[in-house]
Amino acid sequence: MASNRNIFEQLLDKYDAALAEAFFQGIDAIKSQVTLRVVVERLEKGDIAGAIDAIQVEREAFSVLELFFADAYNPGGISLVENHLPKLKDSEGNRVIFRFGVYNPQGEASFAIIRRSS
Questions:
Q1: Is residue 108 exposed (0-12), middle (13-18) or buried (19+ Cβ within 10 Å)?
Q2: Contact 6, 79 (CB under 8 A)
Q3: Burial classification of residue 54, based on how many CB atoms lie within 10 Å of its CB (0-12 exposed, 13-18 middle, 19 or more buried)
Q4: Residue 109: which domain range?
Q5: pLDDT tens-digit map of 9-58
Q6: CB–CB of 85/98 below 8 Å?
Q7: How many domains is the chain partitioned into structurally?
Q8: DSSP letter, residue 107
Q9: Which of 4, 64, 75, 80 has a C-alpha 20 to 30 A away from that of 37?
Q10: How would residue 100 be classed by pLDDT, with cut points 50, 70 and 90?
Q11: In 2-101, at which residue ranges do the beta strands (DSSP E only) sit?
């Protein structure tokens, strides 16, 4: 059985450069749509929100990065669940099964609320 440290090192070797490249692709996608003149004009007028709107930072610009994160995060979580959680049984003697899921809908919903309010 491989240790989490070995698994995480393998994941880092596999995804480190790919994650960095995906991040920079997202930045490039945003930069290609930004009109610097508009950003500067809005900042000069003290319109911070308008300047941020002009930058057009959208989650979709980082969709490739998001996929790479999920792809890298999933094996690490599975390894943790399979190798380090205790073997448990419920009060009737049935085995308790732990599973790892890469998505957290409740966390994502909370983040969306926070994002809308800011």
A1: exposed
A2: no
A3: buried
A4: 4-117
A5: 777 777 777 777 877 887 777 666 667 788 888 889 988 888 878 877 77
A6: yes
A7: 1
A8: H
A9: 64
A10: confident
A11: 88-89, 95-96
* Sequence-distant (≥ 6) Cβ neighbours of residue 72 within 8 angstroms: 11, 14, 15, 19
Length of the chain: 118
Tokens of 23: 């991040």
Tell me how far apart the alpha carbons of residues 31 and 57 are, in angstroms, rounded to a whole number. Answer: 9
Give CA–CA dist 15/20, Å, rounded: 8
pTM, to two decimals: 0.44
Q: Which residue has the tokens 């002009």?
A: 54
Is the CB of residue 64 less than 8 Å from the CB of residue 29? Answer: no
Q: CA-CA distance, 28 to 30, in Å (whole number)?
A: 5
- Residue pointed to by tokens 């393998």: 10
Cβ 105 vs Cβ 82: under 8 Å: no
Average pLDDT, the chain: 78
